[in-house]
Write a structure and sequence with these properties.
The complex is a heterodimer of chains A (about 400) and B (about 210).
Chain A: E1 2-7, H1 23-39, E2 44-47, H2 60-70, E3 75-78, E4 81-82, H3 88-102, E5 108-111, H4 118-121, H5 129-143, E6 149-151, E7 159-162, E8 176-180, H6 184-193, E9 196-199, H7 206-222, E10 233-235, E11 239-241, H8 245-257, H9 268-274, E12 278-280, H10 282-296, E13 301-305, H11 313-336, H12 349-357
Parallel strand pairs in A: 1-2, 1-13, 2-3, 4-5, 5-8, 8-9, 9-10, 10-13, 11-12
Antiparallel strand pairs in A: 6-7
Chain B: E1 4-10, H1 18-36, E2 41-47, H2 52-61, H3 66-76, E3 80-88, E4 91-92, H4 94-102, E5 112-119, H5 127-138, E6 142-143, E7 148-151, H6 165-182
Parallel strand pairs in B: 1-2, 1-3, 3-5, 5-6, 5-7
Antiparallel strand pairs in B: 3-4
Classes of the chains: A alpha/beta (about 400), B alpha/beta (about 210).
């Protein structure tokens, strides 16, 4: 099981000082946070995408590539990458690049984005959000698996003989999570491809997450990717810790009360009761987090939101220290107990390569000399036969992938 | 015979309120009419005042706290809705509209509705027909033709001499009862997450389909 953090990249006034960090400060702070996540023993850092102030993360793969260069084990992901307003061709290229420069430490979480004004800036319409997510992913999925793609759809200019470069590292596409708060169609999309499903699990009650995950697991099995227990599940979460519970509540309250999204709404007490937000001691976070398994089953990835709402860097680093020293080691041990053997580990590049190639050497794409187009002749790559490889069915990952 | 579920929402702000009083009269008459016809009735009444904070939080966050969730589920699964609001500044109370705003837009389809309203003067009685009725027709609910408006004067001397408030309550309740008796709405509830339900409609043409 993987543990990590995700950030939405908000630049928010610290309500206790009245000071708003600059973009430069917040960007540097986030890089420090990501590096510290690895230092304290976390597995994953995931970064959101926004195209409007007060957020800074418009270009996640650039940021993640830098972090990749500064770290050695940290898995780099997104939360989320906009499958609606980004061109799927660019997503295919950017994340294949990130795979290469990070040595296979990249995956991607796709989401639709719910900021209405963003859509028209990219020539799209939010009312088409779901059809865009379906069509764009269908193309993205092919671009990573087929060297030469002919494609035509509703939302993008057609492709004739297009090759997305570089080809995915070792011929294995980045693992894909589909993220959604409340849309059953996205759970179905994740299940039908045998991809992962990530539940936001922050803003809505746990009962809602439970139903989304149950639907995803059932449909994963229906589509023949493995048993329901073998579906790949990730959960969000939100914590604030001090050694003593009372100190945590006291210190977090001003940030909660003024936070984007839920600030000026329910009380901290009501919100912690109604959603998975936990404000308290490390032991309380451990207990609450272990309880997630009771309603979603054994899962693969737990990410926490730690650094939003104007919390200063120093505080966020303290949170990371507590996670690394007191919380995650216990969670690793406890989650491993009674975990059924059939439940897969979290997806990694190495595991995906092993699932695809077994003991054989993975593909190393080697292009032919430029001939100006891909429309005629054999493959643009020297290492593959002209005839397309048979499509492999089964899961993208996990025991079912090797059946 | 299955039980018919009537949900009453009252958005009066004081306790006791004349809005709640009108709501109770309407639901009592409707229940009595149905019971006389041998129909079992279950009436559930919600004071929106008790849900005011939850409604605001729902507007801000997008999900309903437990108490409000129970009210929303009750409305969505009802066979009939009795909706009563005071008239403030020529229209429904803001709290009443906020509650309607957090209801799923499809949840009221085909739902029989009896509209009631209260106010200080009979001169606002048309607010039922120019403000409240369009709200429910937009949502594809079925408001009965009689809406019952109760002005302060209706509760004492000086009420309508042609047709008294109790007459109007009975007339509205009877129209409402006629529709509630016939509807099978609460048996047709569907749940997008229900796992036993086929989900092929969710998506077409994806890998593996």
């Amino acid at each position: 099981m993987q543990f990590g953090i995700f950030t939405v990249s908000d630049i928010t006034q610290d309500p206790t000082t009245g000071r708003t960090p600059t973009e430069a400060e917040r960007i540097q702070a986030t890089l420090t946070i990501a590096k510290h996540a690895e230092e304290v023993g976390l597995d994953v850092f995931a970064l959101g995408e926004h195209h409007n102030p007060p957020f800074w993360s418009s270009s996640p793969t650039t940021t993640l590539a830098y972090i990749a260069g500064q770290t050695s084990t940290l898995q780099l992901s997104t939360a989320t990458t906009l499958i609606t307003t980004n061109d799927p061709v660019k997503i295919a290229e950017d994340f294949a690049m990130l795979q290469h420069v990070s040595g296979g430490r990249a995956d991607v979480m796709l989401g639709r984005g719910n900021t209405g004004p963003v859509y028209p800036w990219f020539g799209k319409d939010i009312r088409q959000g779901l059809p865009l997510a379906m069509e764009n992913y269908e193309l993205l999925h092919r671009l990573w698996r087929e060297d030469v793609v002919d494609w035509e759809g509703r939302f993008r200019t057609p492709l004739q003989g297009f090759t997305s470069t570089p080809r995915p590292l070792d011929g294995v596409p980045p693992f894909v999570w589909h993220g959604s708060i409340r849309t059953p169609e996205v759970a179905e999309q994740a299940a039908s491809y045998g991809d992962g499903f990530f539940a936001n699990h922050i803003f809505w009650p746990a009962s809602h997450t439970q139903r989304m995950i149950a639907l995803y697991r059932q449909r994963f099995e229906h589509h023949g990717h493995g048993t329901a227990a073998q579906a790949i599940v990730g959960l969000g979460g939100q914590v604030f810790m001090r050694k003593n519970s009372q100190d945590a509540v006291r210190d977090f309250r001003p940030y909660f009360d003024n936070a984007p999204v839920y600030g000026h709404g329910p009380s901290l007490e009501d919100f912690t009761q109604q959603t998975p937000l936990t404000v308290g001691s490390p032991q309380e976070v451990i207990d609450r987090t272990l309880g997630f398994r009771d309603y979603v089953g054994d899962y693969q990835r737990q990410l926490w939101l730690l650094d939003h709402a104007g919390l200063p860097l120093k505080t966020v680093l303290e949170q990371l220290d507590l996670l690394g020293e007191e919380v995650v080691p216990v969670l690793r041990r406890e989650f491993a107990k009674n975990r059924p053997a059939e439940v897969p580990d979290a997806p990694t590049h190495a595991a995906l390569v092993a699932a695809k190639y077994g003991d054989e050497a993975p593909r190393q794409a080697t292009p032919n000399a430029n001939r100006g187009d891909n429309l005629a002749g054999p493959s643009p790559y020297q290492d593959v036969q002209a005839a397309p490889a048979p499509v492999k069915t089964g899961s993208a990952f996990g025991p079912a992938a090797t059946r | 015979m299955t039980t018919k579920r009537i949900v009453v929402i009252s958005s009066g702000l004081s306790t006791p309120s004349s809005t709640r009083q009108l709501a109770d009269r309407l639901s009592a008459d409707a229940a009595e009419i149905l019971q006389e016809r041998g129909v079992e009735v279950e009436v559930q009444t919600f004071e929106l005042r008790d849900l005011a904070h939850d409604i605001t939080n729902h507007l801000l966050l997008g999900f309903a706290p437990p108490k409000l969730e129970a009210a929303l589920e009750a409305v969505a699964a009802a066979d009939g809705l009795i909706a009563v609001t005071p008239i403030f500044t020529t229209s429904y109370a803001g709290l009443f509209k906020s509650f309607i705003d957090v209801i799923d837009p499809q949840a009221l389809t085909d739902l029989p509705v009896l509209i009631g309203a209260t106010g200080g003067t009979p001169r606002h009685s048309l607010a039922i027909d120019y403000a409240i009725r369009p709200l429910f027709t937009y949502l594809h609910a079925v408001p009965v033709t009689t809406g019952v408006y109760a002005a302060t004067s209706d509760w004492g001397d000086g009420g309508d001499g042609v047709r008294s408030l109790p007459d109007r309550i009975f007339r509205g309740a009877k129209e409402f009862a006629d529709l509630v008796e016939r509807t099978d709405r609460s048996d047709l509830m569907n749940d997008p997450f229900a796992l036993e339900r086929p989900v092929g409609h969710l998506i077409g043409g994806l890998a593996g389909e």
